[in-house]
Amino acid sequence: MGNRLTRAEEKKFWGLNRQIFVLGWVSFFTDVSSEMIYPLLPVFLTSVLGASPTFLGLIEGIAETTASLFKLFSGWLSDRWQKRKALVVFGYVLSSVVRPLVAVATSASQVLIIRFLDRVGKGIRTSPRDALIADSTTADAQGKSFGFQRAMDHTGAVIGPLISFLLIAYFTQDYRLIFALAFIPAFGAVFILIAGVREKIISPLPSVNPWRKFSLKSFSPSFRIFLFAVIIFTLGNSSDAFLILRAKENGVSVALIPVLWMVLHVVKSLSATPGGILSDRWGRKKTIMLGWLLYSAIYGGFAWSKSPEAIWLLFTVYGLFYGLTEGAERALVTDLVPATWRGTAFGLYNFSVGLSTLPASLLMGFFWEKFGAPFAFSFGVSLALLAVCLLGFGLRK
């Protein structure tokens, strides 16, 4: 049973299942690779390849929509096959191979294709990986396990840009060389994944029409209510780029914006595992509601604060919101569905979040332009509070 989890392999690391520990490091090295490239990509596209801001937006829009669609399909497929690891490996390998090819791109259209394939890889791996984490964890440690994975992901998001900054500051300003070097941590992630992660045996899937599993009617009312609440919340949770814009408006210098961004990711990383543990002990629903209430307070602060000092405080607390919700939401998905449907459930969850993000940012931009930043942020506050009410009164778990 070379690819199956054994009792010896369930050894604990930092109180975590070995499988979870290894998957955390896979996420870490993958994000180091990705974030070595991503912050430099807009400058590379516009300054080196001559792309317009509109084309840049097209690239990112297509990339994220593609990822959302594949998250839905791959989750369902992992349930049908009962083999999560193969999809996870394929997704990571695809992204790891194509992402550094930006180094040899000679046109913005080539970057579009590379980003498309990179996001296809992300879409293929995400839902099966989340289901694999859930399959490998006991019910009382789901929050901690997902929190650890998110913590390692955010830590990679800190280290990646830091490596690029140091390379540019002290060694080279050749973007293409930095993009090529991003293959090294990507290769490390794939090696750790193939060598260290094992398939987890779960109960056979009941004999049902496979296409029926795409219907929300196949899931419990509790899961459907949770998914609806998440969609409402996400429609008010626009791109964090608007927070950067607000920071600049309120006096944070452009030179300090990368530091502000790094502070946010550090807090995300430090709070993700404790937030997951809190959901294990205090309850998923209460932890998520606390996070969403904190979000509404933070967005209210962004709406009305005028000083750079307030912006620094808000960014710091904003990291806690992620820590409270990212692991808890994924753990709640696990709680609300049978083990044999986890891949599809995570696909629906990730798909809903991904597709809601685009209109959320469009609405934010429209309200900002027409009515001003305070109104735009207040809209986010309103939807967050509505989502809290839906979760609080609609979900009994």
Overall description:
- There is one protein chain.
- This protein is mostly helical and 397 residues long.
- It has 2 domains: 10-198, Growth Hormone, Chain: A (Up-down Bundle), CATH 1.20.1250; 214-397, Up-down Bundle (Growth Hormone, Chain: A), CATH 1.20.1250.
- It is 76% helix and 1% strand.
- A hairpin with a 2-residue loop joins strand 1 (12-13) and strand 2 (16-17).
- Mean pLDDT is 87; it is low at 1-5 and 207-213.
Measured on Cα atoms, how large is the radius of gyration?
A: 21 Å
End-to-end span in angstroms?
A: 37 Å
Write the CATH fold name of the largest domain: Growth Hormone, Chain: A
Question: What share of residues is helical?
Answer: over 70%
Largest sheet: 2 strands, antiparallel
Q: What is the number of helices?
A: 15
- One letter per element, helices H and strands E, the order comes to EEHHHHHHHHHHHHHHH
Distinctive features:
single chain; two-stranded antiparallel ribbon; Growth Hormone, Chain: A; 397 residues; mainly alpha; globular
